[in-house]
Amino acid sequence: MATGFFWDERTFWHAGGNYAMTLPLGGLVQPLAAGGLPESPETKRRFKNLMDVTGLSRELDLRTAPQATREELLRVHPASYLDAFKSASDAGGGELGHHAPFAKDGYEIAALSAGLATAAVRAVAKGELTNAYSLSRPPGHHCEPDKPMGFCLLANISIALEAAFAEGTAKRAVILDWDVHHGNGSEAVFYGRDDVLTISLHQEGNYPLESGGLDDRGTGVGKGYNLNLPLPPGLGHEGYLHAIDTVVIPQIKAFAPDIIIVACGYDCAMPDPLGSMLATAQTFRDMTARIKRTAEDICGGKLVVVHEGGYSEVYVPFCGHAVMEVLSGSETTAPDPMAKAMSLRQPNARVVAFQKELIDDMAAEIGV
Fold it and tell me: InterPro entries from the entry (predicted)?
């Protein structure tokens, strides 16, 4: 078996919205010369291009996939939302939620993005691939069942996971979200269930502003199966690994899933314009290696990584390449050109000690 990489050029054609970064144009907000929203195709395209140039792409099982079907979408999203989205898309585009614009054919492209994630999860869950990466765009982890937001139009991971449940290839799953923003969409879908453990590591007070609290632990039978770690701005490499080692991995092992899905946002990397964290390409390499080993220990290595945020066109490709090196076990590397500068900007020992203590205190407060 091999490592799968699911992508499609058509997803890079998603567009829409008159924005300057995240501000609507108008008044004193001027248009940007290089486009609108920071969620552009270039970070994803350059990621794939870098793997092509280094040769890593040739070591992967490259695949595309069909659009997610309406039946698959309806397991997560109500017909009323899908119909409104399709109608607006056919009419030329629009915006149905907060910071989630789309152009004509936006519905079909979003369904393709969800289809890539669904195919990746299906192939790994069925044992056709060792593990897989889905280069999904538009992203999905902010999209709630009837409310698109934060660049996300369909809940890609939730759709993919519900398909695996419906097909009987998985019964229990972990969704680990290390995007810099809270994974409110996945949380909303599974908040009252005990067959999915949702874990979100995110910068406190970033986006969405009123979600991602430490005390949001689930409801009903899902109580205790949602875990948020709102992390302090400036958390660096050591802080992230401490959270993974002391909180995330023990919780995954205790839950014993059939498959692990990572909502992989690269916006907690140091140069990202929408985050204030200090993660590096090495951070993503090390987090992926730890979760891969955990998957090998408890669920036969069944691990799927789904692309979410990350808005530095220069740096995202190197972070993504590092993740793919680990997933595939390849020795083909793309050395981080910012590694030295990144290491010099990491928190000092006293700050790291404080950050680790804060994470430990949060874990103790909620009993994990």
Answer: HDACs, His_deacetylse_dom, His_deacetylse_dom_sf, Ureohydrolase_dom_sf
